[in-house]
Amino acid sequence: MATILDGKALSKDLKIALADKVKESGLSPKLAVVFDPKNDGSRLYVGMKQRAAAKVGIATEDIAVADDVTTEAVLKIVADLNADPSVTGILVQAPLPKTVNDQQVFSAIAPEKDVDGLGAFNQGMLFGDQPGEYAVAATPQGVMTLLRHYDIDLHGKKAVVVGRSQLFGRPMAALLNNANATVTMAHRYTPREMLLDSLQNADIVVVGVGIANFITGDQIKDGAVLVDVGMNVVDGKTTGDIEFASAEKKASFITPVPGGVGPMTIATLLENTFAAALNQAKSSKN
Ligand SMILES: Nc1nc2c(c(=O)[nH]1)N[C@@H](CN(C=O)c1ccc(C(=O)N[C@@H](CCC(=O)O)C(=O)O)cc1)CN2
Hints:
Its EC number is 1.5.1.5, 3.5.4.9. By secondary structure, this protein is of the alpha/beta class. The chain contains ten helices and eleven strands. It is 45% helix and 15% strand. The chain starts with a strand and ends with a helix. It binds the ligand Nc1nc2c(c(=O)[nH]1)N[C@@H](CN(C=O)c1ccc(C(=O)N[C@@H](CCC(=O)O)C(=O)O)cc1)CN2.
């Protein structure tokens, strides 16, 4: 039976430690959240982020956009937030309405306020494995923190990342690569046989495709580490992309859904937000 990678418990501890750090710093971090209020998921996740932020001492301001908003209008909102010294972090909750080019908006956020690390500058730092302080997307960074907490060795291991989104797959593969794993990426155009072949040999599998039970226990190697980034609702129940019942019998470690990667995403965003406020305070002193 696999050990559960308990993101819920770890995120709770991280948030308690963060609340102390925020208090000790004497800073007043403020996170501006731009989102589409007509998107049910965005409303839910923004609400979760705001409540968690309040608990650790981070103020939030939410900016709801209309469903026919243009990219130019959102770029103007971001430019105003960049120029506002009271705002130390900016988060653009994806997806924005279809009328908006999300990536163009992410890249317009000032790199030092880009707490989700989704802009071109911060992504470039990650993909170049550059030293220094920069934000990395909260979901893959949260996965790395979880793996580190359970002492899971990545060096020289074979990792498969299923999914190639900006929010998850691409930065996840870069982080694993930077940690000296050998990384294979699979996506919707990867032939099924090729994916199954990669899974059979993988020490670590990280999946985020949004298809319930996409990966089952019989497809993975004995003792593999399984990380489920999927979030699906089946018969009113939240479930991941991995068929938990069959997979936990073969894996050495596995994340549950809910209670695995999701809470780590929120805790990591808050950590990134505090780090951004701290860095801005330090550079304003210099
Ligand atoms: N700008 C961003 N947009 C989006 C991101 C992101 O990191 N940055 N991620 C996703 C969704 N997301 C955060 O925004 C997120 C998803 C899920 C959870 C979570 O804690 N889920 C719970 C279960 C909740 C439920 O039962 O419905 C869990 O896994 O335990 C947190 C954050 C999209 N957009």
